[in-house]
């Protein structure tokens, strides 16, 4: 029970945050290094915890300690609490971790009729003193005595009406006398007692009130939401009041030691003469740029600028500083780390390294990798107003605006005429691919994060919002509904693919921004990271972008995306519908040169870097038209008894679509299961890879610049891996014989099934590398269909905290992560030279990257746009261990 | 190279199978115990392996050893090889593991012009001798000299045509002389050399030929298919010929020591006078029942019956014995374990225990659990001819016949008129339930082993073949196609739900058969097994059947099946379509008494035994109509502009169906994910369980007879388990307060997701039991959709041996099994009293049960029909360790 519960500012420092709270520790630190801080003291968080656990109010020892410190404060200020030259105080909460607005503050404590009189005399300003008094009564009554706010507001409103003025500032001294009486009467009526006139009693009540505010509902909920422990408690900061509104030689302001928007290393801020902090907030008067203080009060400005520099140097961090000037005397009320944009954060971190203020690793630790996101895509100006009319799944990041069009052909036509178009569809199919290419962005009412629209858009780096179930499209009437509102086709919408928002009208967009500092910071990240970083890229353009963004290879080239190009879809469909091997091989022969061309372009871009190419993975029906639309069409054709041949063709197509339809395509006939049943498809792809390489060799590219890695998807059994490896090897041998040459290549597998992890040792014999497909591994391990769960139960699970994070965004360490550990351990035991990477979307998630670093992966692979995030996260992972 | 390569019969015994082959060891054994076996010797499997690895023909030492044994044989028989009173021999292969028909046999070896003459003189029967000679030439030429069989057949056919006779037996001596000449000419022409006339050369060539036959293509393939090692080699049995066709005092026959159809303990067999074994096989003459031999040759019969008894006692197993009588002398040519029906196997095993011949555990080891299958269901008489017109998935075992009907109402109507009907549909929905109940069996063209039809049929123990893609139904024309044949509705078909066969017409059916011996044997199984055996049962009738079949509890009561009863479906659909909580609760209130009634009936049947009830598991759309049919109907209603209200209702229904439709329902919104989002549904079910119990208590049932175990499906996270446990507990407390009573109950979970296994320790805190759902765990661990894979790639995988067994039939030990081990280990570590069972269909599979025993499960649960299999398998598991 005994012990020190109170610290004078001089006794504390910035390291004592857990005892003194964030604000208190910084006040103490500033006092310690000699800055002009209004004197005061801090009641510790320990005292708060004691108070809460005892549940018996303030105990005598604590009260005595408060009073003792009060005496010291009186000595320091030369004023007396409740006496002549009355000492007024602020009583503020101060949690260890900032909980803005969650807990209580009381200003001007110490006022009562007698001190009001003395202070008015001292100041020669009774109106000012009365204004302080009525504010104090209202604040104290509300916070401590729980008297409802609106009772006081009623009285103020009445007074303004009576005087026919609009603001409280226009009320005169006499009005304020009346208001004070009215306020005191309200307190009497509501509490059945007089407003406490004893300053000591005021103080004790205020301290208790701050303690109790730790456990208010809103504070508890805030802590739950922000995962702040409940046992930290709050400190109480008690400080002498200073006033910036005592005339033209007084003022108040806020400053950042560097520009929080751009990071420019220059003092930035604003101030108001003859004003208190709340006036700045209220927005009645427009504050002046800080630089003008240089002219208004040159000495003060010089002193303040020096203090700012001192604080920044001291904290080795950009500071956000509040100050008040009371009758030409400068006081610093608060300093804290300044919030800033990502752009500014990067500039500041890089500048500070150059200024010798911080080390490179400190710079890296100051930028949260996910912060970079906002620099990497077009985005909607966060300061602009937006009319959000609906919301879907954030399927592909970035923002876009354009006229709504329901049809891919029309989209292409309008785009060719220079119009900006959003392609809006129930869902997309390969038939829409030219529309997707031409559109600014894609919006669908059905389908999840792995729907056709989402996958294709992400591959193209094009914004996409999908699965917006509130959106209903009426093609026949040429209009669409969002919730209950009707809009015509052609309406301009904006979509935000990072949040899923659908916005009415043309939203102002901000373009991606890569500064020199951005590149410099990432360079430092590259110096220290152990994880290599590759990109998921399916075509030469993506590959080029990936290299620009720092990719050290391609970790996942999805060959099926090459099948989705508009001119290829008919050939692909022919291949699928083929009823004989000959027909199929004929179609494959047509596809071969197309794939070969793709591979050639990619290998060229990736010279000297490994390229992992995954053989065909998705179920074949994904390349065919939508089953239900086809069903309705066949039904119509049958009824209308028109073109018999067209009917027959569509019937054959429908039959094929139906025979390929699966109840659970995610667990169906895909991956190497296709390669085993239709080896001719894989053989064509393997041939296309090697032929592309021979072409490049003939064009003079050195052999060591070509590093193909052929990846077999969805392997679960040793036999699958061995047979597929054999297929690659024999096909390679055939081509080598034809071409009279040799090429070095690796064969490996995706690890995306729980079984694959459990028998990784059996797979590692035939596989030279594992690429962990965390998307599918998450789906199977958790039994979540990503397409379904993200629009169905997952939001509910996240909202109810059944899941702490979305397992498709951040790796599920206990389940999926455990399987990954097993796979790595077993795989490396069987094959010590096994290369292990990850190519699911978790490869671009910082928290997941940290895990991948810890378990010893060799590389992560992510979309080109997320490479900077991955590079930074990989670097930070080496620092966090 | 040195060593003994040949054993005289007297030197071997039955334990030497690996050296002497199966046949040789038994011949030696019989000789050893003094039975009349034609004398001979055995060249060992070691000699064969030597021969094959040397690749240089017979080596001198081996030849010398053969000749030495030949001398002994001449002494034993008093005949000479190639001399007067010529010794003829049979040369037969004899593998360690029987490979019937796979390798070579040569009879009558030793014949050539000289010995033919001598033998004819000796026998006084030149025609008989010539017949032996031509057979020998043909056999030797074909087997040893690789002369094509048909060249000899041509000569025989020609001779028959010339003589205008139908069988070779009708050919006369002169014809045979001519035929022998013709045969020798063929050999000369085909091989360019004379047929070898030196008996020694014949013998050496024959022995080499038997050795080589180990590596013929067909033998290699047979070994692969039956997983017989390639390095065993074959022995060669060389034995003096005996002849049953030397007159009325000769004969041949086959006998079983007990009846192989019924197990009746009486000699059973047949014989022919004046005949060789091949005459019996050829079927030209009808053999006589063995009992008649008693009259024909009383002494021989007596001697033979005694030998049979000796052999059975000696081998302690029912024997299948071949014998020949040569001029009133009995020879035993072969004895082996007799094949028998399951019915006979059980009777024999039980009888032998009673006779003191074998122990109970031996009896159990003699019955393969899966053999019982044929006793447990109606089946198609295996001896009857069947015209198989198609094949689907064997979805629910048993056989049924009836008229094909496409419509559930019509099925019900016809069944009420006493007609036997097969319900044949593209797929079934809950709307068809009355048709399923009324039908003899179900046949569908779409859907897999977990389709609605399959699940419902298995639950009812009704035969079902589903996913028969060759079947096309044309409702409008009232006909159906199988492959390219058209059949009218009303055609009689039979289906075999155990094989998936679809058979034209009314197949003869055999009813299930439970004998006293069957129950006695299972009683012995119950004495020694450690694993408890429970049943999957969803209604009182199934529960009663389960108890009859020996269930020690219900391991899985699927509450959704209760939702599928015809009169409940509309209420269930109302519950699902409900747009407000109130509407939903109204429907649930109607369902409550129905479920309560079900539970009451089940608890009554299961008095004193635990009942595990799984709360609602499948996605809700499974209770709604088929989406595509609804789509077409709405399209039609819109076009026809008829009944506006009907259109509106169907539109609302379609909208709901669409909003509930999932891309991968197996991984979708089901299991406890439903219980968390719609707790009111689970609350109703929990209430129904407890209210049923209170009803029974009030009716006087003792409390300890009621052992409810409430099971939460599809749990993957600790939070899910804890919240669901909480829901059960709070609901229980509510009811206990209302009813002023207490009931003991357990709450546990299905373990059916890989994640659940990996975090089993976290779940075992709130769970009192785990029930491993191996069906879903297999789907997720392997990434196989059961509905899809069984009709798509799985047959291919099995055929190509990528998978050795169907993982949905036999547990995948390396993947799924490993996860189960992890779950048990982690679960028991966290909760030492944790009860762990299995309730997937693997719970009825003997190989899987063996695994479950090994890893220490407490119980398995399977369909009532498979309980006898499970009981026997669980007993055998204790013996196999």
Helix content of chain A: 40-55%
- Identify the overall geometry of chain A: elongated
Largest interface: A-B, 57 and 57 residues
Say what oligomer this is.
homodimer
Unreliable runs of chain A, pLDDT <50, ≥5 residues?
A: none
Report strand % of chain A.
15-25%
Q: Which structural class do the helices and strands of chain A define?
A: alpha/beta
The total of beta strands of chain A comes to: 31
Distance between the termini of chain A: 38 Å
**Spatial sequence of strands, sheet with the most strands of chain A:** 12-22-21-14-15-16-17-13
Major pleated sheet of chain A: 8 strands, mixed
Provide the descriptors you would attach to this structure in a database record.
homodimer; 881 residues; alpha/beta; 8-stranded mixed sheet; 8-stranded parallel β-barrel; 36 helices; 31 strands; 17% strand
List the topology elements:
Two copies of one chain form a homodimer.
Chain A: E1 6-8, H1 17-32, E2 40-43, H2 45-54, H3 60-77, E3 89-95, E4 105-109, H4 113-123, H5 126-143, H6 149-163, H7 173-191, H8 199-213, H9 217-225, E5 234-240, E6 251-256, E7 268-273, H10 277-282, E8 288-289, H11 293-296, H12 298-315, E9 319-326, E10 329-337, H13 342-354, H14 360-365, H15 373-376, E11 379-380, E12 388-391, E13 393-396, E14 399-405, H16 408-416, E15 421-425, H17 433-438, E16 441-444, H18 452-460, E17 464-466, E18 471-474, E19 479-482, E20 485-488, E21 492-496, E22 501-504, E23 509-510, H19 516-528, E24 532-536, H20 540-548, E25 554-558, H21 559-563, H22 569-577, H23 581-605, E26 610-614, H24 627-640, H25 644-660, H26 672-677, H27 679-698, E27 707-712, H28 718-739, E28 746-751, H29 754-758, H30 760-763, E29 769-772, H31 774-782, H32 786-789, H33 793-799, H34 813-830, E30 835-838, H35 846-854, E31 859-862, H36 867-880
Parallel strand pairs in A: 14-15, 15-16, 16-17, 24-25, 24-31, 25-26, 26-27, 27-28, 28-29, 29-30, 30-31
Antiparallel strand pairs in A: 1-2, 2-5, 3-4, 3-5, 6-7, 6-9, 7-8, 9-10, 11-23, 12-22, 13-17, 14-21, 18-19, 19-20, 21-22
Helix pairs in contact in A: 4-5, 5-7, 6-7, 13-19, 19-36, 20-23, 22-23, 23-27, 24-25, 27-28, 35-36
């Amino acid at each position: 029970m005994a012990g020190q519960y109170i610290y004078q500012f001089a006794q504390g420092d910035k390291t004592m945050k857990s005892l003194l709270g964030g604000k208190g520790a910084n006040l103490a630190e500033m006092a310690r290094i000699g800055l002009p801080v209004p004197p005061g003291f801090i009641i510790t968080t320990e005292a708060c915890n004691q108070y809460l656990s005892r549940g018996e109010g303030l105990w005598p020892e604590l009260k005595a300690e408060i009073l003792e410190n009060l005496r010291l404060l009186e000595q320091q200020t030369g004023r007396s609490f409740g006496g002549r030259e009355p000492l007024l105080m602020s009583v503020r909460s101060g949690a260890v971790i900032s909980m803005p607005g969650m807990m209580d503050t009381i200003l001007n404590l110490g006022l009562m009729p007698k001190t009001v009189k003395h202070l008015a005399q001292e100041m020669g300003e009774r109106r000012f003193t009365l204004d302080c008094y009525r504010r104090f009564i209202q604040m104290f009554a509300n916070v401590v005595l729980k008297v409802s706010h609106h009772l006081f507001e009623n009285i103020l409103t009445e007074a303004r009406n009576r005087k026919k003025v609009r603001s409280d500032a226009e009320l005169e001294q006499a009005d304020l006398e009346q208001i004070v009486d009215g306020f005191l009467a309200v307190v009497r009526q509501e509490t059945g007692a007089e407003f406490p006139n004893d300053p000591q009693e005021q103080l004790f009540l205020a301290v208790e009130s701050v303690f109790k505010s730790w456990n208010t509902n809103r504070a508890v909920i805030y802590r739950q939401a922000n995962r702040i422990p409940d046992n930290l408690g709050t400190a109480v900061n008690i400080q002498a009041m200073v006033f910036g509104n005592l005339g033209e030689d007084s003022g108040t302001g806020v400053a950042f030691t560097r520009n929080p928007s751009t990071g420019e290393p220059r003092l930035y801020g604003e101030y108001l003469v003859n004003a208190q902090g709340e006036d700045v907030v209220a927005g009645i008067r427009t504050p002046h740029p800080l630089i003008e203080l240089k002219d208004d009060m040159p000495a003060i400005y010089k002193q303040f600028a020096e203090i700012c520099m001192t604080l920044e140097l001291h904290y080795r961090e950009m500071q956000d500083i509040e100050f008040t000037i009371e009758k030409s005397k400068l006081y610093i009320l608060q300093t804290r780390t300044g919030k800033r944009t990502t752009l500014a954060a990067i500039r500041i971190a890089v500048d500070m390294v150059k200024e010798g203020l911080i080390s490179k690793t400190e710079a890296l630790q100051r930028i949260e990798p996910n912060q970079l996101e906002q620099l990497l895509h077009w985005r909607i100006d966060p300061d602009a107003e937006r009319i959000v009319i609906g919301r879907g799944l954030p399927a592909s990041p970035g923002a876009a605006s354009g006229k709504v069009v329901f049809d891919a052909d029309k989209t292409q036509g309008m785009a060719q005429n220079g119009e900006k178009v959003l392609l809006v569809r129930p869902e997309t199919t390969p038939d829409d691919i030219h529309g997707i290419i031409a559109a600014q962005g894609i919006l669908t009412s059905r389908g999840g994060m792995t729907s056709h629209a989402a996958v294709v858009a992400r591959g193209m780096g094009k914004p996409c919002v999908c699965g917006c179930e509130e959106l209903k499209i009426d093609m026949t009437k040429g209009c669409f509904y969002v919730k209950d509102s009707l809009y015509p086709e052609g309406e301009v919408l904006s979509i935000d693919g990072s949040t899923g928002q659908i916005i009415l009208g043309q939203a102002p967009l901000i373009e991606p921004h890569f500064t020199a500092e951005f590149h410099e910071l990432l360079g430092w990240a590259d110096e220290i990271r152990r994880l290599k970083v590759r990109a998921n890229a399916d075509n030469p353009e993506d590959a080029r972008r990936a290299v620009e963004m720092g990719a050290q290879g391609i970790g996942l080239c999805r060959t099926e995306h090459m099948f989705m190009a508009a001119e290829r879809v008919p050939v692909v469909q022919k291949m699928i519908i083929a009823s004989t091997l000959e027909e199929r091989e004929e179609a494959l022969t047509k596809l071969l040169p197309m794939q070969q061309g793709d591979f050639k372009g990619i290998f060229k871009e990736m010279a000297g870097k490994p390229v992992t190419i995954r053989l065909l993975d998705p179920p074949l029906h994904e390349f065919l038209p939508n089953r239900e639309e086809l069903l309705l069409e066949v039904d119509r054709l049958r009824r209308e008894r028109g073109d018999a041949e067209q009917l027959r063709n569509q019937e054959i197509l429908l039959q094929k679509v139906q025979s390929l339809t699966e109840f659970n395509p995610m667990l169906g006939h895909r991956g190497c299961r296709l390669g085993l049943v239709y080896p001719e498809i894989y053989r064509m792809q393997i041939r296309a890879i090697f032929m592309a390489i021979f072409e490049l060799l003939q064009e003079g590219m050195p052999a060591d610049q070509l590093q193909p890695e052929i990846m077999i998807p969805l392997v679960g059994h040793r036999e699958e891996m061995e047979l597929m490896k054999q297929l690659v090897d024999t096909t390679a041998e055939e081509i080598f014989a034809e071409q009279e040459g040799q090429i070095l290549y690796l064969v490996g597998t995706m690890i995306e099934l729980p079984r694959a992890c459990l028998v990784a040792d059996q797979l590692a014999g035939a596989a030279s590398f594992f690429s962990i497909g965390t998307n599918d591994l998450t789906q199977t391990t958790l039994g979540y269909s990503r397409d379904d769960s993200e629009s169905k139960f997952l939001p509910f699970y996240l909202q109810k905290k059944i899941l702490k994070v979305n397992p498709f965004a951040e790796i599920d360490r206990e389940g999926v992560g455990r399987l990954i550990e097993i796979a790595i351990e077993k795989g490396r035991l069987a094959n010590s030279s096994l290369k292990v990477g990850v190519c699911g979307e978790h490869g671009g998630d910082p928290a997941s990257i940290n895990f991948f670093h810890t378990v010893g992966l060799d590389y992560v692979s992510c979309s080109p746009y997320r490479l900077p995030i991955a590079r930074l996260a990989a670097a930070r992972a080496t620092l966090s261990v």
